Amino acid sequence: MRVFHGFEELPRFRKPAVTVGSFDGVHLGHQALLARLVAEARTAGGESIVLTFDPHPRITLGRTDGFHQLTTLDEKLTLLEQLGIDNVIVIPFDRSFSALTGREFIERYLKGRIGAQTLVVGYNHRFGHDRYDCHAASDCGLRIVEVDEREVEGSHVSSTVIRRLLEAGDTAEAERLLGHPIRVAPRPVSAPEPTAGTT
User: Taking the domains of the chain in order of start, what are their residue ranges?
Assistant: First the structure.
């Protein structure tokens, strides 16, 4: 698996199938989406590409009350590699990037820098600060593949649900929804300190 940090030195990808998200925990819901991504890339004779963020957007935006990160970046990359992902692009998620509209992100990065042809998304995915409906991305010339919500024996699978289980001390149920053991205890995080000259 190749890992790229930012968009500056990307190669020319072969028929890229792309997905975008934080993928904190790389839980069973994520795994279903990522399996579909790999399948779409293989069917097209192309490459699978995951775009993820570092730091987590909630950290950059200061929305860290009660937020516990489930995986470090290195843990996430290890899990993505085990799932057969070909390429990961780690996006430095800063205030400037967070100000992009969904359409700007698609045109400038997914199409402009990556050359994406297929976009694999979850059932409720939105892009950018304006919560751009990714299904409208088909208007931008992308083929959209939607993956349905994942449930495990009636339990909804999401990073938020798993964090709540861990806060309640239910590690066994959290690991059931993750689909893998907790590697380290989830870490509480706080917003970054403002740098000099910022407001």
Answer: 13-149
Q: Hunting for tokens 């995986």 — which residue is that? A: 71
Quick count: other Cβ atoms within 10 Å of Cβ 22? 19
Report helix, strand or coil for 12. Answer: coil
Closest Cα to residue 25, out of 87, 64, 79, 88? 79
- Tell me the whole-structure pTM to 2 decimals: 0.86
Q: Give per-residue pLDDT as tens, 10-48.
A: 999 999 999 999 999 999 999 999 999 999 999 999 999
Tokens of 150: 């994942």
pLDDT in tens, 115-155: 999 999 987 666 666 666 666 666 678 899 988 877 777 67
**Paired tokens of 95:** 């205030």
The whole-angstrom separation of Cα 175 and Cα 84 is 21
Is the N-terminal amide bond of 57 cis, ω within 30° of 0?
no
Dihedral-angle region of residue 197 (phi above 0 means left; psi in -120 to 50 means alpha; beta otherwise): left
Q: Is 47 helix (H, G, I), strand (E, B) or coil?
A: coil
Q: Which CATH superfamily is domain 13-149 in?
A: HUPs (3.40.50.620)
